[in-house]
């Protein structure tokens, strides 16, 4: 079949010389690259003795914040659960009882608040969606373990302790 433009370019491979056929320059350049890696600084960090420096926008484990009076900021509005693309956040709302005014900010609070860390992708959408600034991704690195149920964080692991 003829080409439509009738512009055909015939390319003939140029013959290799003796050294190129022996692949000696290619082998020597590969060895030179390998030898140069011997003298570079090693990127190994000896954790936990040496802590890695994180960037400003590092997203660690979740934490539920308290206000200046020590009350929980979360009002169980559910916006964090709705914005989570991995559907890792579940919560159950409850109404505040008499005598619990110092524990919760609003009349409605999250009685159960759980984050499945195995599903979480640390995108930060929950942090951005929260109107009360109750959830932040400012914790440490997620630890490794063999049991799956350890990675479902409840309020016991998420709520920051009361500072007096």
Q: What is the distance, rounded to the nearest whole angstrom, between the alpha carbons of the first and last residues?
A: 87 Å
- Radius of gyration, taken over Cα atoms and rounded to an integer in Å: 29 Å
Could you give the order of the helices and strands?
HHEHEEHEEH
- Secondary-structure-based class equals alpha+beta
Largest sheet at a glance?
3 strands, antiparallel
Shape: elongated
Instruction: Give the amount of beta strand, in percent.
Output: 5-15%
Give the CATH class of the domain at 62-158. Answer: Alpha Beta
Can you put this structure into words, describing what you see?
By secondary structure, the chain is α+β, with helices and mostly antiparallel strands. The protein has a domain at 62-158: Alpha-Beta Plaits, CATH 3.30.70. Helices cover 20% and strands 15% of the residues. It contains 5 helices and 5 strands; from the N terminus they run ααβαββαββα. A 3-stranded antiparallel sheet has the order 2-3-5. The chain has a two-stranded antiparallel sheet with strand order 1-4. The longest helix is centred in the N-terminal third of the chain and has 15 residues, at 24-38. 13% of the residues are buried.
């Amino acid at each position: 079949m003829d080409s439509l433009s009738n512009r055909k370019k015939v390319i003939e491979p140029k013959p290799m010389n003796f050294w190129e056929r022996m692949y000696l320059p290619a082998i020597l350049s590969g060895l030179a690259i390998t030898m140069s890696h011997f003298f570079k600084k090693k990127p190994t960090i000896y954790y936990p003795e040496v802590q890695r420096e994180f960037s400003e926008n590092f997203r660690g484990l979740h934490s539920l914040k308290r206000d200046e009076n020590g009350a929980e900021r979360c009002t169980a509005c559910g916006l964090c659960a709705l914005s989570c693309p991995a559907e890792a956040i579940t919560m159950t709302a409850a109404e505040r009882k008499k005598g619990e005014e110092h524990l919760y900010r609003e009349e409605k609070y999250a009685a159960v608040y759980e984050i499945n860390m195995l599903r979480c992708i640390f995108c930060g959408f929950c942090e951005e969606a929260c109107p009360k600034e109750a959830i932040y991704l400012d914790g440490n690195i997620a630890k490794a373990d063999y049991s799956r149920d350890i990675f479902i964080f409840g309020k016991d692991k998420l709520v920051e302790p009361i500072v007096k």
